[in-house]
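Budget justification aside, the reviewers requested a transparent look at the raw inputs and outputs of the sequence design task funded under Objective 1. We therefore reproduce one unedited record. The lines immediately below are the structure tokens for a 85-residue chain.
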């Protein structure tokens, strides 16, 4: 089941964007493309791509994953910004 990677990539995109209407469409030959089903009609977002390229495209599409930072990380970044002045 090679399509599992493609499905997980789309699930990550759904979580990042908040749009649950994204879907992966599988074609013969191991090609996939991304569609947005919001608005009633399927809007094709990507061209058919092999699995690895499709996962890379979906991971780069939409808003980036929020960066996790602790209070110490934020304080350290502030300290670096202040020292450059």
């Amino acid at each position: 089941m090679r399509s599992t990677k493609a499905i997980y990539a789309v699930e990550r995109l759904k979580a990042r964007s908040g749009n649950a209407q994204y879907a992966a469409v599988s074609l013969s030959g191991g090609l996939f493309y991304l569609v947005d089903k919001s608005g009633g009609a399927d809007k094709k977002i990507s061209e058919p791509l092999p699995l690895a390229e499709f996962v890379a495209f979906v991971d780069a599409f939409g808003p980036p994953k929020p960066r996790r930072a602790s209070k110490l990380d934020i304080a350290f970044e502030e300290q670096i910004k202040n020292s450059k002045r």
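The first strand starts at residue 22 and ends at 27. The mean pLDDT is 89. Computational costs for records of this kind are itemized in the attached budget.
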